[in-house]
Specification:
- The strands form four sheets. Strands 2-1-3-4-5 form a five-stranded parallel sheet, with helices on both faces.
- The protein is α/β, with parallel strands linked by helices.
- The chain starts with a strand and ends with a helix.
- The radius of gyration is 20 Å and the shape is elongated.
């Protein structure tokens, strides 16, 4: 199956060289190029690629800045002149990264990794809402989270809950709790309500991460989440929760 890709790099020569290398991989169709982050954000929004090749150090916004502004992430392969020390912040979490000048063998390895991951997901999951409705984030979609020098690509099904912190949201996954510049209301509009539930004014919880439900004050409920967090469900939302869960 052909994957539609966008190359985002401020160096025209680097974009041309990568396009030339990709000619040996007919499964990748380059549908657009962008010379900076803002142009890349616009083209990603308009064209919804499956994959982006992304430079990090660009004038104005960096590749990291670009990722934080996307609601839904395509697969990402970094193309960068950074050395391994600079890549330590995200090398565990990125799909792959290619050091410039890009070597044909490394490019092939990255594309094989992409193919392997997608085959594995296809075997274990049903059709993603991403395919059916691009307005809603499916549980297999991923978000980019940056906290100082640390970066993560996190699948929504790995997130236990979101907590409102003003105009930000704290994201709870694994042992981490970084902030993203998204309000809880904005997240609620994009998340699949069959998976994520608005428990109260401050919290959205992943229904599949709930380990225990207890009665609480004034007709509310208390949810115990897999990470040990205890979240109160307001009385109004408790009625909705019971209907959803057939309690």
């Amino acid at each position: 199956m052909t994957k539609r890709a966008i190359i985002i790099d401020d160096e025209r020569l680097a974009r041309s060289e990568l396009k030339k290398l990709l000619q040996d991989h007919p499964e990748i169709e380059v549908i657009a190029e962008a010379a900076n982050a803002n142009e890349g954000i616009e083209k990603i929004g308009n064209m919804a690629p499956d994959l982006i090749f992304l430079d990090i150090q660009m004038p104005g916004k960096t590749g990291f800045d670009l990722l934080t502004e996307l609601d839904r992430l395509p697969q990402v392969i970094f193309t960068t002149a950074y050395d391994e020390y600079a890549l330590k912040a995200f090398e565990v979490n990125a799909l792959d990264y290619l050091l410039k000048p890009v070597e044909p063998r490394r490019l092939a390895d990255a594309l094989h990794k992409l193919e392997y991951i997608e085959e594995k997901e296809a075997l274990g999951t049903s059709l993603s809402p991403q395919t059916v409705n691009r307005g809603i984030l499916g549980e297999n979609d991923q978000v980019f989270v940056k906290d100082g020098e640390r970066c993560w690509f996190v699948k929504l099904n790995e997130i236990r809950l979101f907590e409102s912190v003003g105009n930000y949201a704290k994201v709870f996954f694994s042992t981490h709790k970084p902030l993203i510049l998204k309000s809880l209301n904005a997240l609620e509009e994009r998340l699949d309500e069959k998976v994520f539930f608005r428990a109260n004014r401050k919290h959205i919880v992943n229904l599949r991460m709930i380990e225990r439900v207890e009665p609480y004050f004034n007709g509310g409920l208390l949810l115990e989440i897999k990470g040990g967090e205890k979240i109160e469900v307001s009385r109004r939302q408790a009625v909705k929760f019971k209907e959803m869960m057939s309690l």
